[in-house]
Specification:
The chain has four helices and four strands, in the order H-E-E-H-H-E-E-H. It is of the alpha+beta class. A hairpin with a 2-residue loop joins strand 3 and strand 4. Helix 3 runs antiparallel to helix 4.
Amino acid sequence: MTETPASTSARGSKLAFLLITAAIVGLDRWTKGLIERSFDLGESRTVISGFFDLTHVRNTGAAFGLFARPEAGETSWLLTGLGLVALGAIGTYFVLTPARARLLLASLALILGGAIGNLIDRLVSGAVTDFLDFYVGSHHWPSFNVADSAITVGIALMVIDSFRSREPTGG
């Protein structure tokens, strides 16, 4: 079977989205490593007083600390397994998405990058390094990281994409 110029072009344009995925994984790994080397566990440094700190925490739960427990051995393996299944599903969705669906591909690339970044943490140490700590007074948003941010933005873009009108396909 020979490739057409259109199929080669589609593969090339999808490759650009995989570069987004790689950039997210790289940025996530770099920032987590920087925090792990520069901060003791639990250490916090104020960036914007009354609003934003960098705080080194280890999250044994899901996104934003959901389901975190101190004795999280079985929870960590369950979340790792679920992460692998989700990664497979998102990867399959990415492969099956047409190259012309650029917003959807961008959202999937962000989600893939975030999922891979957090999955690496779980596989290596059983917990995810979080460090972005936003708050107002005593009200804190759960700490998160670059991977969580990419997943959140990716999901928001996916929701926006779902409201866009689609061109009818011939048939």
